[in-house]
Design a protein that fits this description.
- The chain is an all-alpha fold.
- It is 78% helix and 0% strand.
- The chain contains four helices and no strands.
- The longest helix has 32 residues.
- The protein is elongated.
Length: 127
């Protein structure tokens, strides 16, 4: 596997972007107005953090640094899923929206894990 020329070319970034767009466009806009500075704000921050951490790690040009940022990104994807579960539990979104979000989160997390594993193998090969 050769290094992609841009972080936007990474499959994990693209999957994170899909989850971010879903959370910000499909979910956040449906939540009640009184949640604007509570759940909506947390959901959007966590969703944006997914792709931002992938991009920042990519710019480090060091396998272990990039792997660390991927761990942060994975945590943010898990946080988005938790916010979706909270929204479902509190009757703000339906089960279909939760399941769609879970599918996107699971895909993003799997791709992040795969790329992180690759980076850790490369780091080990260089040591």
């Amino acid at each position: 596997m050769s290094r992609k020329s841009r972080f936007e070319d990474l499959d994990c970034w693209q999957a994170g972007r899909a989850l971010r767009k879903f959370a910000c466009i499909e979910v956040a806009t449906r939540l009640p107005p009184d949640e604007r500075y509570r759940l909506v704000d947390q959901l959007i921050r966590a969703a944006r953090s997914i792709t931002a951490n992938i991009a920042e790690g990519y710019g480090r040009f060091h396998y272990l640094d990039e792997a660390k940022f991927l761990s942060n990104s994975r945590g943010s994807a898990q946080e988005v899923l938790d916010h979706l579960i909270s929204a479902y539990d509190e009757g703000m979104i339906d089960e279909t929206l939760l399941n769609d979000g879970r599918t996107l989160a699971d895909n993003a997390i799997a791709l992040i894990n795969g790329y992180r594993s690759y980076l850790l193998r490369r780091a080990k090969e260089q040591s």
